[in-house]
Design brief:
Strand order of the largest sheet: 1-5-3-4-2
Largest sheet: 5 strands, mixed
Structural class: alpha/beta
Number of helices: 13
Shape: elongated
Strand content: 5-15%
Number of strands: 9
Order of helices and strands: HEEHEEHEHHHEEEHHEHHHHH
Number of domains: 2
Distance between the termini: 79 Å
Length: 328
Amino acid sequence: MNDVLTISETDESLSLLDLIKQIESEHGTFDNITSTIVNDYEPVFKYVSVYSLFVDKKYQRYINKNFLKKVKSLDLSLLQPLVVFERPSGKKMINDGQHKAVISYFSQGKDYEVPCMIYTHKAHHDSKKCRAIEAEIFKKLNVTRKNVSQLDTVRAGLQYDEPSAIEFNNSFVSMGIKCQGIGDVDYGIEVRAFVKARVAFTRYGISPCKKAVDYLRNIYEKRLDKNYVDGSMIGGLSAIFNLISEIGPETNKGKGLILYLEEIFPITNIPSRWNANSAGNSDYIIIARRIVDEYNKAVEENRFNIKVSVIGKDTMKTHGLGPLEDIN
C-alpha cells in the first residue's frame, strides 16, 4: 500500500516559503522589518480559570454592555488566547480580552479555564511600573482596531505619560468635565458627545469653554436635574462667550448678550430647542447662531431694561459665526 499522501491537483495550498518567494518576486524584499522583544518579555501559554483573572481599570476599556446583550452564545472553537500579565504580587491582569473573559464567565461559569498568553513582570517592578508597561502594550494591541475609542487610547496613554494623552486629559480638567474616567474625575461634570466639547476647546481655548461648562452645569443640575451636560451645547455656548469677549462685554451688544444669558436663555427648552438637527463638527456654529437670533428677537421686542443692540450678520461673520459655507 502506498503510504504517501497524494495532494489533489485542485488543492490550492501554498507553502509559506513559496508565498515568500512570490511576495519577493512581486514586491522585492522587506529588509526594513526587524524583530524586538519589548521589555524583554516572552509569553508562556497557559489555561487560566476565569475567577483568578483581574483587570486594571486605570487603562482598560470600559465594558461594552450593548455588546454583551447582543451575544447569544460563546463559540469555544473561536476563543482566541487572552493577553495576560502576571505581576510580582501574583495577580494575573487581563491586558487584552476582558470581553472574552466576561462572556466565558456568563456562559461557562467562574471555574472555566480560558487560553492565555502570559507575560511575567520583573520581580522588582512596582504596580506603577507594571501598569505603565501593560498600558503601552494595550495601546499597541488595540490602536488599529476600529472598535477602540479615542477615550480608550487616551486612558492607556495616561499610564505611561504619552504627551497627546496628557494634553487631552488636561483639556478636560481645565474645562471641568469628565467622561469615562478621563478629565476632572473628582469634581467635573460628565459630558455627553465629548468630541463636541473637544472641538470647542481646540477652537476657543480654556476661558470660553470653562465659562460655558460652568454656565450650563448650573442649568443642567439645578433646573433640568441632570448629572451631565451636552458636548454640543458646550460648543455653542463657548462660541457665545467667545463672541462676548471679542465684541466687548462693555458694549451694548456685549451687555445685551450677557443679560440675555442671565435672564432669558435659562428658561428656554434646553437643549432640544438649540441642538435639534445640528449634527456635525460645525454644530456649535448652528447653536450659537440660533442663540443670537433669539437674542435679536428679544432686542426687537424691547425685553431688556438697558440699552442694547442687535448683532448683525457682518458682526457674526467677522467673529467666525457666519454661514457654514464661510467657515473654514
